[in-house]
Amino acid sequence: MSQHHSFAGLVNFLRRIRSVMAFTVFCAAVGSAALAAERPNLILFIGDDISWNDYGCYGNTAARTPNIDRLAESGLQFDRAFLTASSCSPSRASIVTGRYPHNNGKASELHLPIAGHLPWFPALLREAGYHTALVGKNHMSADSPGQPKPWDLVDGGNVQGNSGGNGKWEQTVRNRPLDKPFFFWFASYDAHRGWDGDRDWQPEKYGPRHRPDDVIVPPFLVDEPSTRQDLASYYNEVTRFDYYIGRVIEALTDQDVLDNTLIFVMADNGRPFPRAKTRLHDSGMKTALVAHWPAAIKKSGRCGGLVSAIDLAPTILNVAGLKPPDTILGVSMFRLVQDPAATVRNAAFSEHNWHDYEAHGRSVRADGFLYIRNHRPQQAWQGPADSVRSPSHRQLQAVRDQRKLFAAQADVFLAPRPVEELYRAEDVNQLHNLAGDREFAAVRTRLSHLLDRWMEETGDSVPDDLSKDSFDRETGKSLKIKSYRGTPPGSDRHADRINAPGPR
Questions:
Q1: C-alpha span between 48 and 209 (Å, rounded)
Q2: Are 278 and 473 within 8 A, CB to CB?
Q3: 405-458 pLDDT, tens per residue?
């Protein structure tokens, strides 16, 4: 053997030893049955616009998600997982950087790039020898082309008869390099409007379409035929998302790598319906989160620990034997794998920034409560433009015009809104605002101060010239203006350069 090959072999051997040692420490901590001979593989499934309670394992008896349900049954199902934004690209940017939206530069607002100097965790995995791929919806960009490349493969994932972004997930697994561990960012377009799943439906794969009679209508929608059909079409896309997760599981099983693959299933924000997507309430900001990893998770079941979407990046890096950079503001969830009853954070913070309409809201979940502060209370939180154009929203408008809305439904149009809202965690639909209740005045004050501290320490701000409405609030039609962009929150304080995590 040549000296060159001997040296290269030694380097590879030392790298493997270092990775195995790092992972062995974790395996010992969680009681894994055997030391890992290889670094674990990693997959993050991200649904598009799916609320936390639209999966079978989270109690929805109508939406069919058998593959996700099986992962939850033999893995961990998180009951208190929250996003940092209920808006597509800001939420994804938070996940990929491990930072709050206002700490990502312009990316705090929909469709804008992440500050170019911030590392993405897939780039760190790739540099460490992982094969990385993004297949499906991307919706992330950086404002500097000089960043390390995060992906070996980028593919929109659409195939003939399936425009859900998940048609190439299985082949990505089967065609991967076999000499490297892998990280796959599998992000569907399901269940984003406008329901191409109905057009592309393949009953031999997905089963029968969901029946409008079977859907669960939340209290803030009108229970009538067009809304039920709207929800049934949405359920169809949730089921298609689930089906292709099942195809990936089958491929992993065939390759005998499922046991050593850490899988997360989540969504970027709530369903694209009124009082869900873009909202700080649970219907918009809470996410289903399922973790599956047979090699390490030895105690399956429900996990009640509070976690944030920014905790995924440090968790995944730790599992890969890598130290998270200082830019990551999340905290690793390792301890929850060992003990689902453990605590890794005491507070989770979320943001509502521009998404089609001017907005600035902040929230904190702590001590069994949700506290919301609205810096634009004069404007309604009616939801994004695609929701405003939906049959479900039009039905709300019709009943509004008849002055027959229930209080939960009227909240979609409420303006001015309360500056402060406070809800018990068990009020799952957030229908009883306790902010003005004397009995809870101390809770409101405590959480208000906690939110103030977080905003100050992380460099958040409320610029006077926030981005303005670019769609009509009543029709959802574009206003066709070019000058609606303003100052993103935190940019005046250079929050993209601040690495203080704030309270957590």
A1: 19
A2: no
A3: 999 999 999 999 999 999 999 999 999 999 999 999 999 999 999 999 999 999
Within 13 Å and on the Cβ side, how many CA atoms surround 125? Answer: 31
Looking at residue 471, the DSSP 8-state letter turns out to be B
DSSP-derived letter for residue 180 is S
Nearest to 297 by CA among 247, 330, 334: 334
State the residue for tokens 């690209």: 89
Who contacts 109 (Cβ-Cβ below 8 Å, separation ≥6)? 90, 353, 354, 355, 467, 485, 488
Strand order in the sheet with 131-136: 153-155, 131-136, 182-187, 41-47, 261-267, 289-292, 76-82, 301-308
N-to-C CA span, the chain: 54
Question: What DSSP line would sit under 388-451, residue for residue?
Answer: HTSHHHHHHHHHHHTT---HHHHTTT-SSPPSEEEEETT-TT-----TT-GGGHHHHHHHHHHH
**Confidence label for 291 from pLDDT (cuts 50, 70 and 90):** very high
DSSP state of 452: H
- For residue 24, name the pLDDT band (cuts at 50, 70, 90): very low
Q: Which of 41-50, 144-153, 179-188, 437-446 has the lowest mean pLDDT?
A: 144-153
DSSP 85: B
